[in-house]
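Suppose you are handed a protein chain with no further information: no name, no annotation, nothing but its sequence. What can you learn? This example shows the usual starting point.
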Amino acid sequence: MKTAEDVLRIVKELRIKLVQLWFADILGMLKCVTIMDRDLEDVLDCGKGFDGSSITGYAEAEESDIIAKPEPFTFQVLPWEGDDEPVGRMFCDILLPDGSPYPGDPRYALKRVLKEASDMGFTYYIGPELEYFYFLSNKYPEVIDEGGYFDLVPNDVANKLRKETTLVLEKMGIPVETSHHEVAPSQHEIDLRYQEALIMADYAVTYRMVVKEIAQQKNIYASFMPKPIFGVNGSGMHVHQSLFKGDKNAFFSSEDKYHLSDVAKCFIAGQLRYAREMCVVLAQWVNSYKRLVPGYEAPVYVSWAQRNRTALIRVPLYKPGNENATRAEIRCPDPACNLYLAFAVMLKAGLEGIKKNYKIADPVEPNIYKMETSELESRKLKSLPDNLMEAIKEAEKSALVKETLGEHIFTRFIYNKKKEWEESRMQVTSHEIGKYFSIL
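A reasonable first move is to predict its three-dimensional structure. Written in structure tokens, the prediction is:
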């Protein structure tokens, strides 16, 4: 854990002249202000003031002065900037001029829920799997390979990009678990080793930046868009979750037939109960709902299972002697969401399940997509929202989502999502032109 003194020492030793201060707006877009090394000590102590009125979802014009206060433990050197003129970066807390947390800061929203978990004795660990595509340009989704799941192709450009990305992440102190080709052509995945949620949120934001940066250096465009190509799998972000008490996994029970503790069952029950309400945060774009359809390994129905990958939450089978690996994998988030807000609502829903002792039904192991309507009704399986507007309406009624995000973020987030929906709803698409123009 680096201190301010450590950062100052490293910057001096490496002769770093520029330090980037990173933070996210309410939609999860990465923002940056760069300072000179001569100002670093003062910024570490007092923060860097800026105009928040120009940041999506932040301050109004009449209350625009806010502060980016860097957290020293997040300091890393950016390997892609080169060794000749190294550049550092830190993630920031966003503060009001009086030093109190700024209510529009998504990172602070996550910190609040993590504090709630800590007060209950829990540490929230997560391991997200962020999928993405490589394309020849950012103008049109033209793939660079025709590979499939786990394919290895000689002289594969994408494989080399994944390799370089992995090495850069490791150099930055971000441990990588695995990397591989995904199901769709030109679709790939690099999995980060599980970590405490705030650290992982920073890691995952960095990961998205590194994937794009390394690709761009090779004149390739990397996209985390949930569904960039019709007719093939979209990109998801399956998130493996567990709660620990000290060094013990609170999700594990040796006595339960599923090896799940009561804590784990209540946590899962909470996420299932609030799944529709929090979906707008986990799948926040109009395009997200093009992915959440039957037939492409994305979940549609609110259920849990062990083997069944069509369920919303999957509990991987327990391997004897590996108690710490007991976890719940939620499968509806996509990699384009605001990671801080997504992890916050996921945890909040689980904690509510624990507090209120929610019960879960039996797991649904058959393939849900092959069930008849009558069976879906008999099992009382609810579906996730069909589109962004339906998800917005669910969130607007949700006390849990509003409490998790806070009034400031909640109001502005919903406003932005409604605006996005209206803009999309009025568009005339190429599909409509191709299907109707010549016959109507």
